[in-house]
Amino acid sequence: MSVDAFKNGPLSDLRVLELGTLLAGPFCGQLLGDMGAEVIKIEPPGQGDPMRAWGRQAAGEPSLWWPVVGRNKKAVTLDMRQPEGQALFKEMVIHTDFVLENFRPGTMEKWHCGWEELRQINPRLIMIRVSGYGQTGPYSHRAGFGAIGEAMGGLRYVVGDPSTPPSRMGISIGDELAATFACLGALSALHYREKTGEGQVVDSALYEAVLNMMESLITEYDKTGYIRERTGAILPNVAPSNVYPTADGLVLIAANQDTVFGRLCEAMGQPELAKDARYFSHQARGSHQQQLDGLVGHWTGGLTTKAVLELMDQHGVPAGLIYRAPDMLEDPHFQAREAIVETDHPHFGKLKMQNVAPKLSKTPGGIRSAAPEMGQHNDEVYRGLLGVDAERFAALQASKVI
Predict the structure, then answer these.
(1) In order of start, what are the domains of the chain with their CATH numbers?
(2) Catalytic residue at 79?
């Protein structure tokens, strides 16, 4: 197949049926859609995904979050609680590559659309299942939101200042990690299917996705009894890497690797620090972290932010500002790489949002369409894809199956 066949992205020959609501499942669908997959979002008639109303927007205005998580998708309505809805869903499964859902385990089985039923219809199907605790185990039946996964996976305990209770990160990181791991699993299962022709289940649990980001937290406790605590802006024993004051603001400097620390010392005009017994190695700097941070902060405090950043750039030391949205929109690097793009929206006109990542050189993904209205593609999918005739289509509408 030629590269031209994938002009809308590397997954443009694949179809996804996205069930579920809120963020963990839909964010996985967004990732697949960004890379070109045809994502058909299925929502209950008259109800829709709550994400259509979430986010910060004026009263009565459409959601400003939904255009991001709903982009590159088609939308159909379908009542999975009705037998006719379940039958129609199974007709769609025949023509799809992935079924993506993030219901509590057992919900799809209750609707007679569990893995065992669906694999009989389409043996090549890959079923992506995102849940709080996974499809098995004593907690699998429990409701599980991202916040609980963050807490049980170990993230909440280590986020924040040591003087405060555990914090959250300000974004729905647990849901998004589970979605990202689900996407990784889906593409791994797709590779296996290409070799064998067989589909399988991808089981992504919120708490396990978070746990997999916790580095050596478990291993450190296993071998030394050490329990990581909240440490604010630093990582224990990793120095210098902190937010430092300047004469007119703050700057983040990360110079914890030996050679980089040497370059920082040169920039500071104190090259002898790199050979000081207290600072000459990673372990030594970690043992004297507070003292070293004080030295770096004293130096940066006598310079403007601009001067510090220029010196760091000249000496090859990683440094930067702590950005907010306005800083991102004004930054020339963001602009040069099109990290933020403007897309058309039926209500807002032009709408800025983050672009697709990562960038592929031959078959890049992209934002092809704004988030759809509820049921916008009913006719295209049911009558076009499935060949539902006019009489049956009218009957499905009348009975509120769609």
Answers:
(1) 3-213+340-398 (3.40.50.10540), 241-324 (3.30.1540.10)
(2) no
